[in-house]
């Protein structure tokens, strides 16, 4: 006689949750890309990152010069020797990135409901009233009511360190904006992002070309992360440029999708690129927040079908300052892996975060589970 109640089939055995995490996991599943910077450029810390599971080191040329990154890379080579763990090198271009030029590096405090002017006159000094920017075409590209974000290291989502502006009026080449939240911008480099607006800057800038042909060639980079990829043509141009350099014929080009323009041309970009990086930080600004997960799922599915690696960014932001991720973040990493993500890219968490090694370790454990 069988019992009446239905036996529920468990997709995951509850008991397995209580088993201890595996101390060493097979490292070749979901890769971890770590960005090396001020907090993670010593041989010691890099060795810790490698042991914790980092298999690609990302060098972000949005800040720091070739010499700075070269020192970091020499340390990486030593760390690889010490730990006997291999690590690939990724050069991340600046691309069509609008930046606020803050020569004095003084902190700038902005008050809600005040007005601030964005001007292409880079000779001016940055202040609470005036932010000089590196793009002369902004006034032509935006209109009253448009949204512009300004923040450091691309908006961490913290509303006290990044500011949300609404275009009030255009005065010649200047853009007058209303400040929507009080914030303090600290540091040398702030990025500017205008939502869903075409920015007429080249995807591979002259500076990028110089960095690739000097630093990139000298170090035979494995990956080129092509920031602000918006069209398949961007990838083709980068590929032509690499093939002219001889030494970089083996370098793979990963197209970084960071705005709606890139999203609209996703299928063609996927055909041309060797892999895709979903830059959720920027996409989260260009798209309504509730749409980002749909893009992630659709894009990862397409990458999996095409057999090309897909990389997801901005997963454990809170670990920049904390030893543990939030539950939402930990779940998010797992879901990115279940969606078919081939690598997780850590930015601020390893670049300037307080716990680079712990971050890689925790993300690695989640991927292993």
Note down, in words, how this protein is organized.
It is a single chain. With 369 residues, this protein is α/β, with parallel strands linked by helices. The chain has 2 domains: 236 residues, TIM Barrel (Alpha-Beta Barrel), CATH 3.20.20; 97 residues, PK beta-barrel domain-like (M1 Pyruvate Kinase, Domain 3, Beta Barrel), CATH 2.40.33. 34% of the residues lie in helices and 22% in strands. The protein has 13 helices and 17 strands. The strands form 3 sheets. An 8-stranded parallel beta barrel has the order 1-2-3-13-14-15-16-17, surrounded by 6 helices. A 7-stranded mixed sheet has the order 4-12-8-9-10-6-7, with helices on one face. A two-stranded antiparallel ribbon has the order 5-11. The longest helix is centred in the first third of the chain and has 18 residues. It is globular, with a radius of gyration of 22 Å. The model has no long low-confidence stretch (mean pLDDT 92).
């Amino acid at each position: 006689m069988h019992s009446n109640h239905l036996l529920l089939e468990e997709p995951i055995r509850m008991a397995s949750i209580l088993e201890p995490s595996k101390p060493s996991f097979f490292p070749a599943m979901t890769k971890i890309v770590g960005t090396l910077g001020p907090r993670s450029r010593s041989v010691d810390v890099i060795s810790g990152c490698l042991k914790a599971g980092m298999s690609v080191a990302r060098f972000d040329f949005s800040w720091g010069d070739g010499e700075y990154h070269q020192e970091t890379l020499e340390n990486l080579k030593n760390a690889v020797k010490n730990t006997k763990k291999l690590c690939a090198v990724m050069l991340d271009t600046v691309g069509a990135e609008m930046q606020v030029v803050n020569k004095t590096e003084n902190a700038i405090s902005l008050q809600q409901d005040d007005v601030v002017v964005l001007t292409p006159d880079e000779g001016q000094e940055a202040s609470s009233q005036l932010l000089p920017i590196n793009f002369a075409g902004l006034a032509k590209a935006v209109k009253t009511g448009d949204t512009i974000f300004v923040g450091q290291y691309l908006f961490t989502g913290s509303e006290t360190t990044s500011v949300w502006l609404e275009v009030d009026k255009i005065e010649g080449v200047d853009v007058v904006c209303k400040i929507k939240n009080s914030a303090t911008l600290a540091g040398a480099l702030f990025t500017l992002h205008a939502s869903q607006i075409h920015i007429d800057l080249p995807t591979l800038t002259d500076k990028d070309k110089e960095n690739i042909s000097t630093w990139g060639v000298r170090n035979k980079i494995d990956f080129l992360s092509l920031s602000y990829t918006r069209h398949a043509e961007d990838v083709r141009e980068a590929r032509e440029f690499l093939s002219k350099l001889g030494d970089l014929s083996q370098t793979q080009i990963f197209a970084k999708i960071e705005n709606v323009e890139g999203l609209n041309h996703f299928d063609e970009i996927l055909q041309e690129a060797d892999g895709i990086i979903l830059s959720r930080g920027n996409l989260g600004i260009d798209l309504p927040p509730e749409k980002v997960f749909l893009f992630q799922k659709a894009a990862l599915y397409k990458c999996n079908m095409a057999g090309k690696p897909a990389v997801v960014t901005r997963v454990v932001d809170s670990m920049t300052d904390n030893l543990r991720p939030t539950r939402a973040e930990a779940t998010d990493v797992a879901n990115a892996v279940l969606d078919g993500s081939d690598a997780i890219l850590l930015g601020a968490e390893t670049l300037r975060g307080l716990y680079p090694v712990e971050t890689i370790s925790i993300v690695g454990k989640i991927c292993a589970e």
